[in-house]
Design a protein that fits this description.
Order of helices and strands of chain B: HEHEHEHHEEEHEEHH
Enzyme class (chain A): transferase
Shape of chain B: globular
Helix content of chain B: 25-40%
CATH superfamily of the largest domain in chain A: P-loop containing nucleotide triphosphate hydrolases
Low-confidence stretches of chain B: none
Protein name (chain A): Adenylyl-sulfate kinase
Shape of chain A: globular
Strand content of chain B: 5-15%
Number of helices of chain A: 17
Strand order of the largest sheet of chain A: 7-15-11-12-14-9-8
GO molecular function (chain A): adenylylsulfate kinase activity; ATP binding; GTP binding; GTPase activity; sulfate adenylyltransferase (ATP) activity
CATH topology of the largest domain in chain A: Rossmann fold
Pathway (chain A): Sulfur metabolism; hydrogen sulfide biosynthesis; sulfite from sulfate: step 2/3
Number of helices of chain B: 8
Distance between the termini of chain A: 84 Å
Mean pLDDT of chain B: 84
Family (chain A): In the C-terminal section; belongs to the APS kinase family.
Distance between the termini of chain B: 31 Å
Number of strands of chain A: 29
Radius of gyration of chain B: 18 Å
Largest sheet of chain A: 7 strands, antiparallel
Number of domains of chain A: 4
Oligomer: heterodimer
Number of strands of chain B: 8
Helix content of chain A: 25-40%
Largest sheet of chain B: 6 strands, mixed
Strand order of the largest sheet of chain B: 3-2-1-4-6-5
């Protein structure tokens, strides 16, 4: 080391201290399997209970005329004691010789799953409690699955109530085999499976003489063997902006470094703008020396060397390790809402400090946590887990959960409530190389006005949507013919036709349907820009997809709902598709096995039932004439008359 | 990061979230050790500024030293202090002789509610900790209350990954708890590290000191010889006496504290 090394010296993050942060352990499992009792016991065995607490609880139990209940240590609420269940998660500390802990008691009842998730999400490791007598139950599996989904990789299993099965080794082995098989199938290797009798304290702090056949550690021994979480300092820098303050003439960008490190002089790139600036200072207050570097977990404030526009939700990173950015997110979601999550529904997605409006474009599978079977569905019920594709109105900066959990997880808000959470299964970028950086729009030399004057009408998109068999193509083709005969520039984009070429690579899953509509929408607008009236004929079942097409150029988009009821469409069945769908030959079929979302506010509704095709065609032609024709005055002005 | 750094950073994050997400917030200042630490954390979070009012609900029963400390520190730190009280109840002679739970409800809970309503605060920051007491252990960091400030502990919003509930229907408001994860020992270790001023009552005189400060009639001192912060830390490392053991209002019935809190008490 030369003398110059003293110029910039990072202040060590770890000041001299012998205190480790407590390890957070969540205790989960099926209702009545003895979680709270286990926790009460652990607290007692480790001397964590204040003086007089046990005596006090003994009095409470006596008053109620019941035997002493260890669970009352955690179940502080009257309602919990009355019903003998844990309603909400609680956190209490204890210490072993190895280290301090925070124990998080989580409720087992299915209706309190949101509380269990709240407890489990902040834990580093878990104890899954299973009743030796009852064996593995629904919530044992659900909790196991959710722990894994939440990113917990260290799980010990306590097979409780061994006293009720006479400390039988064979019963223990049975239960152990069952839970290990399940955990293995979701990719979890439990660290230890411990036979326990929480009520009497067997194998909680010390090894019990009642299980001479058991060679492993006690519950506390198993906890002490968990590895502390690795600091996120090793990951790429992610600094989500929490707020921007203007104090004392400084513009301070405040936030918590979620991962990685930053130092004075680093060039930061802010997503989504891509704007860059250098870190000028790291601001501090109080009797601390000015810092030149800060790392994961620290709540800091920085100033930049240039006054670029930065706001809450932006994510700063270093140039060569930027997060992914895309409109679409493929995620694994646990749903806690009272009503189901549905394709087409809109939610607020909160990821780090950013908030995005997203639509559910597809539910790829609903996972049955009982048997891990996959189901198709257009809805996710409360407490279920599913793989879902969301689409944002603007690009979302993110990482995959595996790469960087801090930027790979989110919650969903509906109305005023947090209704679910999720982890990002795959990070995807709408590849920057294809997308933006080297693309520059080249202006046409013929503008839209000139084209419309030459044609006598404007260009635009007439988007027909409706169920299969509603009459879209029939109407579209006749309208095209009649407009053509009037001398208009017109064409029809029809579902089956584009699927033979442009969209030949796509199937009929919700995601593929969304992509199909996206492409058609872009093509339709290209034609419209060229001055043509483009009539499209696509079922286009999802409102969100149609709204995206509208958003390309809202002035030129006209949504027409060909509103024919399902019964009537099925009666007509012009291509025999309903018959095939009903027999199961076609697996995704709108109206039968896939959703259709009618437009909320279409520019025109064509109710075809009880009308001839000619009448519907005439209605649409009247609309097009009104919306697209130039007035005599416009024409005259256009020709300079 | 050591454990105090981690707690500090998390509390600053919470304070900044509250400041950013809510329209009109205030911080409760009971002048006890926890809220003094919380105030210190706010000054760290906002680089020496406290960008919201600091509220003190005066029951007229506080220990005089506390009020002196309040007025001195408010001046030194240039705090936007608002003092409120339940004038009506005080005029009607409310006091612990009418029942401790009743007195707390009238002078603290109702006094606070009136203050919140008067200023239209949508959120109040309070320095409660999970380790103080069982119902507080169940609290959320951002805890919604209904129009009457009641806490529905049976149906709390999910809260994970620091994604707090910050959207709520008009009329409801939030309690924000930046110190929820701290323990009593953490608080004192942080006071020592940061050299935060404290009311003298915490330090032993004649073999007794206060561990938790409240109203004079309902707060007892405990036997202790700890007369410096370092000695308090040493004492807490070994004690098995619960912190609120000096608080009489908790002990009126098995669920006295739960009822107080459900009704809007801190």
């Amino acid at each position: 080391m030369s003398n110059t090394a003293t110029a910039l010296k990072a202040i060590p993050e770890v000041s001299v201290s012998h205190t480790a942060s407590p390890m957070k352990i969540v205790v989960v499992g099926h209702v009545d399997h003895g979680k709270s009792t286990l926790v009460g016991r652990i607290l007692n065995e480790t001397g964590a209970l204040p003086e007089g607490k046990v005596e006090y609880l003994r009095e409470v139990c006596d008053k109620r005329g019941m035997p002493f209940e260890w669970a009352f240590v955690m179940d502080a609420l009257q309602a919990e004691r009355d019903q003998g269940i844990t309603i909400d998660t609680a956190q209490i500390r204890f210490k072993t010789e190895a280290r301090p802990y925070v124990i998080i008691d989580a409720p087992g009842h299915k209706e309190f799953l949101k509380n269990m998730v709240s407890g489990a999400a902040s834990a580093e490791a878990a104890v899954l409690v299973i009743d030796a007598h009852e064996g593995v139950q629904e919530q044992s599996r659900r909790h196991g699955y959710l722990l894994h989904l939440l990113g917990l990789r260290q799980i010990a299993v306590a097979v409780n109530k061994m006293d009720l099965v006479n400390f039988s080794e064979s019963r223990f082995e049975e239960v152990k085999a069952e839970i290990v098989a399940y955990l293995n199938s979701i990719g979890v290797e439990p660290t230890y499976v411990v036979p326990v009798a929480a009520r009497s304290g067997a194998n909680i702090a010390t090894k019990s003489v009642e299980t001479p056949w058991y060679q492993g550690p006690s519950v506390l021994g198993a906890l002490d063997m968990f590895e502390p979480a690795k600091p996120a300092t090793d990951l790429a820098l992610r600094f989500p902006v929490q707020d921007v303050y203007k104090f004392d003439e400084r513009r301070i960008i405040a936030g918590r470094i979620e991962s990685g490190r930053l130092k004075v002089g680093d060039t930061l790139v802010f997503a989504p703008s891509g704007k860059m600036a250098k870190v000028a200072t790291i601001e501090t207050w109080g009797n601390v020396a000015a810092a030149v570097s800060a790392g994961a977990g620290q709540s800091v404030g920085i100033t930049l060397d240039e006054q670029i526009f930065v706001e809450r939700g932006n994510v700063a990173s270093l140039e060569h390790h930027v997060p992914h950015q895309s409109h679409d997110l493929k995620a694994r979601v646990f749903w806690l809402g009272r009503g189901p999550l549905k394709v087409g529904s809109r939610y607020k997605l909160k990821l780090a400090t950013a908030e995005h409006v997203v639509d559910v474009v597809a539910i790829e599978r609903v996972i049955d946590v009982e048997d891990l079977a996959n189901h198709q569905g257009t809805e996710v019920a409360r407490n279920a887990v599913a793989e879902v594709v969301f689409r944002g109105k603007s690009p979302i900066a993110h990482d995959s959960f595996i790469d960087n959990p801090r930027l790979g997880r989110f919650v969903l808000v509906e109305g005023y409530d947090i209704v679910g959470g999720g982890v990002i299964a795959e990070a995807s970028s709408e590849d920057a190389r294809n997308r933006s950086t080297h693309v520059t729009e080249v202006p046409h030399k013929v503008d839209a006005e000139t084209r419309s004057i030459a044609n006598g009408h404007r260009g635009g998109v007439v988007w027909l949507t409706g169920l299969s068999g509603a009459g879209k193509s029939t109407i579209a083709m006749e309208v095209e013919r009649q407009l053509f005969l009037k001398g208009w520039q017109v064409t029809v984009l029809d579902g089956d036709n584009v699927r033979t070429g442009l969209c030949g690579d796509l199937g009929f899953s919700d995601a593929d349907r969304a992509e199909n509509i996206r492409r058609v929408g872009e093509v339709a607008h290209l034609f419209a820009d060229a001055g043509m009236v483009v009539v499209t004929s696509f079922i286009s079942p999802f409102r969100a997809d149609r709204e995206k097409v509208r958003a390309i150029n809202p002035d030129a988009f006209h949504e027409v709902h060909v509103a024919t009821g399902l019964n009537e469409c099925e009666r007509r069945d012009p291509k025999g598709l309903y018959k095939k769908a009903r027999s199961g030959e076609i697996s995704y079929f709108t109206g039968v096995s896939s959703a259709y979302e009618a437009p909320a506010l279409p520019e025109l509704t064509l109710a075809t039932e009880g009308k001839s095709v000619d009448e519907s065609v005439a209605d649409l032609l009247r609309y097009i004439d009104k919306a697209f024709s130039l007035s005599a005055r416009e024409q005259a002005n256009g020709w300079g008359l | 990061m050591n454990d105090l750094d981690a707690l500090e950073s998390q509390s600053i994050y919470i304070l900044r979230e509250a400041f950013n997400r809510l329209d009109k917030i205030a911080m409760l200042w009971s002048i006890g050790k926890d809220s003094n630490v919380m105030l210190w954390l706010a000054r760290k979070a906002f680089f020496g500024h406290v960008p919201f009012p600091v509220l003190h609900v005066d029951t007229h029963n506080k220990i005089p030293e506390m009020i002196e400390f309040r007025d001195r520190v408010a001046k030194e730190w240039n705090l936007p202090l608002i003092v409120g009280e339940n004038t009506e109840a005080l005029a009607a002679g409310m006091g612990p002789h009418k029942g401790r739970v009743e007195c707390c409800t009238a002078l603290k809970t109702e006094g606070l509610k009136a203050l919140l309503a008067q200023h239209g605060f949508t959120g109040v920051i309070a320095g409660i900790r999970r380790d103080e007491e069982g119902t507080r252990a169940k609290e959320r960091v951002f805890s919604p209350r209904n129009q009457s400030a009641e806490w529905d502990f049976k149906d709390q919003p999910p809260e994970f990954w620091d994604q707090f509930k910050t959207d709520f229907a008009p009329g409801t408001h939030l309690r924000i708890h930046p110190l929820l994860a701290w323990s009593e020992l953490d608080v004192w270790r942080y006071i020592e590290r940061e050299n935060i001023p404290m009311v003298d009552l915490y330090f032993a005189k004649n073999g007794r000191r206060y561990r938790s400060l409240g109203c004079a009639p309902c707060t007892g001192s405990v036997a202790s010889t700890a007369s410096t912060v370092a000695e308090i830390i040493e004492e807490l490392e070994t004690t098995k006496i619960s912190e609120r053991s000096g608080r009489a209002q908790d002990k009126e019935s098995e669920d006295a504290f739960e009822r107080l809190r459900a009704g809007g008490y801190m």
